[in-house]
């Protein structure tokens, strides 16, 4: 109970102090992706971790994690072992890394569209919850893109997995959805 009250207080302080001071831009965010985000996203419904958990518990929405994944460095010395950083996310979510940049290559847009189509079974009215980390413009950009592509039930969770974890909701390790392009 104490943890829930602390989380609620932090959410109120966050909304009062940061999110309201950031205006919603007309276009995609192109840089400084880990900064305070707006409190709104035209065409989408902005939700907090508690609302996301209720939607997740209901099982009627598709959850899409858009946290970027750094590429393997090209000039690693021979014999160097490379391990991708593990991603703990909302159970049942698919991970579509790198689709939230402001400008994405056609191959990345195709990867994002294919992921959306797969998880919604090509139903643009199917609810989707898009998230990343707290104060991450990647999720804002990705949700904006989904709205522009005609998805009508887009939920954006600006708190991301940070807010989810703050409420002590479950997380599980996930891997990127297959077909991830090697370029952004």
> Uncertain segments of ≥5 residues (pLDDT<50)?
15-19
Query: Which structural class fits the helix and strand makeup?
Result: alpha/beta
**Considering DSSP H and I runs of 4 or more, what fraction of the residues is helical?**
25-40%
CATH architecture: 3-Layer(aba) Sandwich
Number of domain units: 1
How many strand units? 7
Task: Provide an overview of this structure.
The chain has 184 residues and is of the alpha/beta class. Helices cover 33% and strands 12% of the residues. The strands form two sheets. A five-stranded parallel sheet has the order 1-6-5-2-4, with helices on both faces. Helix 4 (137-148) links the parallel strand 5 and strand 6. Helix 2 (49-58) packs across helix 5.
Topology of helices and strands:
Layout: H1 2-17, E1 45-46, H2 49-58, E2 62-65, E3 87-89, E4 94-95, H3 106-120, E5 128-131, H4 137-148, E6 154-157, H5 160-166, E7 172-174
Parallel strand pairs: 1-6, 2-4, 2-5, 5-6
Antiparallel strand pairs: 3-7
Helix pairs in contact: 2-5
Task: Name its key features.
single chain; 184 residues; alpha/beta; Oxidized Rhodanese, domain 1; two-stranded antiparallel ribbon; globular
């Amino acid at each position: 109970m104490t943890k829930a009250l602390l989380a609620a207080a932090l959410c109120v302080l966050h909304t009062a102090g940061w999110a309201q001071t950031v205006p919603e831009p007309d276009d995609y965010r192109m840089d400084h992706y880990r900064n305070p985000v707006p409190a709104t996203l035209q065409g989408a419904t902005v939700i907090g971790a508690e609302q996301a958990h209720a939607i997740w518990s209901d099982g009627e929405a598709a959850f899409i994690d858009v946290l970027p994944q750094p590429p393997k460095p090209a000039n690693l010395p021979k014999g160097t072992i490379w391990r991708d950083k593990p991603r703990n996310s909302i159970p049942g979510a698919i991970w579509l890394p790198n689709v939230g940049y402001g400008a994405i290559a056609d191959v990345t847009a195709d990867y994002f569209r294919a992921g959306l189509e797969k998880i919604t079974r090509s139903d643009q009215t199917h609810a989707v919850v898009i998230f990343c980390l707290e104060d991450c413009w990647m999720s804002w950009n990705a949700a904006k893109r989904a709205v522009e592509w005609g998805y009508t039930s887009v939920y954006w969770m600006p708190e991301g997995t940070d807010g989810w974890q703050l409420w002590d909701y479950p997380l599980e390790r996930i891997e990127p959805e297959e077909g991830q392009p090697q370029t952004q």
